[in-house]
Amino acid sequence: MRIALLDDYQDVARSSADWGSLPAGTEVVAFHDHLEDEAALAERLRDFEVVVGVRGRLAFTRSLLERLPNLKLLMSGGGQSPQLDLAAATDLGVTVCTLRGVNSATAELSWALMLALARQIPQSDRDVREGRWQQTIGVSMERKTLGLVGLGNLGGQVAKVARAFGMNVIAWSRNLTPERAEEHGATAVTKDELFQRADFIDVHVPLTDESTGLVGSHELALMKPTAYIVNTSRGPLVDERALAEALREHRIAGAGVDVFDIEPLPAGHPFLALDNIIMTPHLGFVTRESHALFYRDAVENIAAFMAGTPVRVAQVRGH
Fold first, then answer.
1. How much is the pLDDT for 197?
2. So which residues are the catalytic ones?
3. Cβ count near 121 (within 10 Å)
4. Which pLDDT score, from 0 to 100, does residue 319 have?
5. Domain 2-102+286-306 architecture
6. C-alpha span between 228 and 172 (Å, rounded)
C-alpha cells in the first residue's frame, strides 16, 4: 500500500508518528509543496491507495476523485473539509476518515495575533533592529470589548482568556442563545451590534456555503476606526477585497489574518502592500503537539482500514 502525505511544508510528517508500525511493504511518501492544478495533482496521486490531507486545503472534487482509480482511503484533518466531495467519495468506494488536532493551538494563535496588533509587536521588532526606540504606542486589553463571531469550542477558549484579561465579551452566531453565551461569560448580541461595539473581533465559525462572506463590507463599515479583526478560521469567511479596502483606507485599525482564499498567498495579493495587517501562513493548527496527534490518528486510521475495521469514518449528511 502506498500512502501520500500532502502539504508537509515543514518536513515533519514522517517524524511525527510511528509509520514503521504499519505492515511491511507499506510505502509512505511526503510531499512538501501544494498543488492547486487538478491535472497535476491527479498525476501525482494516481498510484496511491491512501492520501492524508489537510482540512481547508483538501480540494478533492468529484472530477479529481474520478481520476484516482487506485484511491481507497482519504483522510482530512480537523473534520470534513468543505472542499471534499464526500458524496462523490462514497459513490466511488473511497472511505473518508477524519483526523484530530489540538484545538487550543488555534485559540492561542488568535490571542497571539490580537496581542501583536494591540502592542504593534512586528513594527516594534523592526524598529529595534533598525536603531529606532519607542516609535509605537499600544493599547491595553483590560476593559476592552471582545466580539466573538462564533462561540463554539474555539470561541469558548478565546472567551476564557479574555475574561482573564478583564475584557468584556460579546458574541454572535446564527444559533447562539443567551444561555449558551452566559455559560462562557459572554453576552449574546446581534451581528450588527457586535461589529459596532467590539474593540477586537475574532472569527470562529465553520466554513459553509451559508457562512462564506459572513464578514463583508457591511460588517466592516460598522466597526470602530480603532477596532481590530482577527481571522484564524477560514479565509472565505471574511471578504478579502472588502477587508483590504477597509485597511487601505484606515477605516479600521488593523487585522490579523492566518487564513486566505488561496493558500499559499499568491504574489501581488493586496494584503502584501498594507502595513496595518499581520499575516501568518495558516499556522493555527501547526504545533508539535497538534501534528503528533494528527499523524498518530492517520497511522491508526490506516491500520484499522487495512484490518477491515475503519475508524473515524466521515458520514454523508443525512445518512
1. 98
2. 234, 263, 282
3. 16
4. 46
5. 3-Layer(aba) Sandwich (3.40)
6. 17
pLDDT digits 0-9 by tens, 116-163:
999 999 999 999 999 999 999 999 999 999 999 999 999 999 999 999
| Count, residues in the chain | 319
Instruction: Please report, for the chain, the start and end positions of each structural domain, with discontinuous segments joined by +.
Output: 2-102+286-306, 103-279
Query: What span, in angstroms and rounded, lies between the C-alpha atoms of 264 and 262?
Result: 6
pTM here is: 0.90
Looking at residue 10, what DSSP letter applies? T
Distance CA 106, CA 23 (A): 34
Which residue's C-alpha cell is 465553520? 206
- Residue-wise pLDDT tens digits, 216-226: 999 999 999 99
Grid cell locating 290: 497538534
- Domain 103-279, classified CATH 3.40.50.720, yes or no: yes
Q: In what order do the strands lie in the sheet with 2-5?
A: 27-30, 2-5, 50-53, 73-77, 95-99
Are 253 and 116 in contact, with CB atoms under 8 Å apart? no
Please, is 273 exposed, middle or buried when counting C-beta atoms within 10 Å of its C-beta (0-12, 13-18, 19+)?
exposed
In degrees, to the nearest 5, what angle opens at C-alpha 75 toward C-alphas 18 and 290? 55
Do domains 2-102+286-306 and 103-279 share one topology? The answer is yes
